């Protein structure tokens, strides 16, 4: 463990620390940004008597952060900021998260904990494939690696042939990436006759996209590695909010730095322990952009607040099921792309490339799932359609494609497409 | 100044320090890499009595470094390395420079000196446009900025419209980039009606490519900024080997970290003070890949070893005239692309985009210079051909093109093209 004592605090110590830090973050907002303080109802830090008192504050949404571009909710003067990272939002105004020196230290600390939780030490050789720069991924792993002292290959995204070459030439033991990238690496390795068993690769740390347990099993089997699911986003201060440990019994969220609530996304009410809902995050130690009740849009549930087999006490949540804004609504049924992925990937013939197309035919919603498969036969197609029907309650057309037929793009994988009109 | 005392050591102190450190680096090589030590003739560090004794060692070339891929000349075990950077070589085996923790500190220190020499403080807002990752540029500026505490916009290369937007939205005061990138920014600014005078931009720090004084004047005038010429390469440990100060009377090379010799590229002999030749660099403080007499291929000369008006005592060299491997030989005449650039850019009508094409017509070398211009007339064309004739002694066909006619690529600018056969 990177910080044994802090990672193993008793629940009582942890919640005491959270309360103390919640007051600090409110005092910081009060001092640095009067508008933000007013937005919260001008609370006096000492009036916060318990963690539950946080429920008096309004939620903060991604749109609120966008509207604050560039520094509307920032706490501090530009002089105090050392850099910023930015959400990789597809369109419109980006979210800017300015970092103070302390924020960089905080980030390094939680990322060092994450890498250690995945079993990395200074002896490891970590190939960092997320991008460096405005996107937070590359730098997050970089800072964590700097703390634990492992040897970093700062290769960034793309150039998959070079990724494979370096894996061999430098004896890479751990790979960090967005969760669809190992799929591309596996594909190129197959084309090149590259054998992961002849490398020293043993750990994969992936995140930034929702990936099913079935996808995870596929990656672990193909690469012969143990994978870790890392969470975090630009808004919370970057990758590193939490990760699953070697016990793989849920994702530990670093509770001395973050306060987690799970709410009903419709009503905004906090749901009972163990109930699924939207994760809401309050940052307890961030200076540049402290968040009070930020709606992450991630759907999960609390698995446990007790000590894990690994010794860590920080709460464990379920792997992210989907994002509220990824939720699909067809014929009155709500579902997440990950749930379709689970059904597909249970079949060993199915390859990890699929596309869900939602379009209207004669005014009615139609769903089609195109998926690559190593076997194209009618019985597999019917089987998949049947399983999806059992899950959704309506018919979905499945199209089996040969390996390589679906387009591959750089960056995050596109899993859903909306057509205004379908031609058939 | 970032380190007043070290940057202003007397010549005697400086050379005493260099001798002491030269012995240290030889001892380090002896301890960590017997093959490398043998290559040098198995010297005993204490046998080095003066700086001139370095002339007993063989030169190290880029090809030597390539052949050593990945760690043949590295000094230390992978456990001691924290990352590596790589030469952006166009083809073939790359040069790998592994960094120890101490090397990262050394790099941060010299980059902090460079940024301070360019007048930057913690109040500045630095937009970093070189790439992050294997290329050393982005990280070099990043580490230097971290030391002096300025606010960094880690945007990386490309997305020129966003570069302009950020310059305005964040109040960028300093821009770092490879030296052809400001040309692209100026071009897009012109298309967008963007006025640099309405920004807070005051400093540009550019390097990695040879750029003439005329090009520099063009950039300074168009952007309304003061520019600084920064040198350094992957092999020497990245950008930051030296920079010109606000006196602009030559590029200071940090002599407590680097020992510079200027040699005749043909004979390998050290040339007299002030004579033009190839710069040879010995690293005095690098651990991962210490260089003894590395041939940089950069053509320059020593301008002064006396105290500069800025107070710094570290030697000053002329701005790089060209690289030995960029040298063109046509009809028995040797010249550098920069020299053609100088002739072209003296004319205010000429735009900073040109391409020198060298091809054979009926077995004879022919040179053609295509250049964009705001005025396309025969008299300007003839004038340019005359001036180039006066310089080279043979006729060169000049083609004037409209703005935007030459192709723009990402990365370093392509200034020379070789054609096997021309169609006439
Ligand atoms: Zn655990
Ligand atoms: Zn000076």
Automatic annotation (TrEMBL), chains A, B:
Organism: Thermosulfuriphilus ammonigenes
Pathways per UniProt: Aromatic compound metabolism; phenylacetate degradation
Subunit-structure text: Monomer.
Transmembrane segments: none
Name of the featured protein: Phenylacetate-coenzyme A ligase
Location of the AMP-dependent synthetase/ligase domain: 77-282
Chain ranges of the AMP-dependent ligase C-terminal domain: 332-416
Record has Transmembrane helix as a keyword: no
Top EC group: ligase
Family classification: Belongs to the phenylacetyl-CoA ligase family.
Alphabetical keyword list: Ligase, Nucleotide-binding, Phosphopantetheine, Phosphoprotein
GO biological process: phenylacetate catabolic process
Enzyme Commission code(s) on record: 6.2.1.30
Molecular function, one GO term: nucleotide binding
Taxonomic lineage: Bacteria, Pseudomonadati, Thermodesulfobacteriota, Thermodesulfobacteria, Thermodesulfobacteriales
């Amino acid at each position: 463990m990177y910080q044994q004592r802090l990672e193993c605090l008793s629940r009582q110590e942890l919640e005491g620390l959270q309360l103390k830090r919640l007051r600090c973050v409110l005092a910081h907002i009060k001092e640095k940004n009067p508008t933000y303080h007013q937005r919260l109802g001008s609370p006096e830090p000492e009036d916060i008597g318990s963690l539950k008192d946080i429920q008096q504050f309004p939620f903060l949404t991604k749109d609120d952060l966008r509207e604050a571009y560039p520094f509307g909710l920032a706490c501090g003067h530009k002089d105090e900021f050392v850099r910023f990272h930015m959400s990789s939002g597809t369109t419109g105004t980006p979210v800017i998260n300015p970092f103070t020196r302390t924020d960089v230290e905080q980030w390094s600390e939680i990322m060092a904990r994450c890498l250690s939780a995945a079993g990395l030490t200074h002896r490891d050789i970590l190939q960092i494939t997320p991008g460096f720069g405005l996107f937070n991924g590359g730098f997050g792993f970089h800072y964590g690696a700097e703390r634990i002292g492992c040897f970093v290959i700062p290769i960034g995204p793309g150039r998959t042939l070079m990724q494979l070459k370096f894996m061999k030439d430098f004896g890479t033991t751990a790979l960090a990436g967005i969760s669809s990238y190992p799929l591309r690496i596996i594909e190129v390795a197959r084309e090149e006759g590259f054998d992961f068993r002849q490398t020293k690769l043993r750990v994969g740390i992936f995140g930034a996209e929702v990936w099913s347990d079935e996808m995870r099993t596929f990656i672990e089997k193909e690469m012969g590695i143990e994978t870790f699911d890392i969470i975090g986003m630009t808004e919370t201060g970057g990758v590193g909010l939490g990760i699953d440990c070697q016990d793989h019994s849920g994702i530990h969220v670093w509770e001395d730095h973050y306060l987690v609530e799970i709410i009903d996304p419709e009503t905004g009410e906090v749901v009972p322990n163990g109930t699924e809902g939207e994760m809401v995050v309050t940052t307890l130690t961030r200076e540049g952009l402290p968040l009070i009740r930020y709606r992450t849009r991630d759907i999960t549930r609390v698995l446990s607040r007790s000590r894990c087999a690994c010794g860590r006490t920080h709460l464990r949540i379920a792997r992210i099921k989907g994002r509220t804004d990824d939720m699909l609504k067809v014929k009155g049924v709500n579902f997440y792309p990950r749930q379709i992925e689970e059904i597909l990937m249970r079949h060993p013939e199915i390859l990890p490339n699929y596309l869900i197309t939602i379009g209207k035919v004669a005014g009615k919603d139609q769903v089609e799932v195109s998926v690559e498969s190593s076997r194209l036969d009618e019985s597999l197609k019917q089987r998949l359609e049947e399983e999806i029907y059992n899950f959704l309650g309506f018919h979905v057309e499945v199209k089996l494609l040969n390996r390589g037929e679906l387009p591959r793009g750089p960056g995050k994988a596109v899993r859903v497409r909306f057509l205004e009109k379908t031609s058939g």
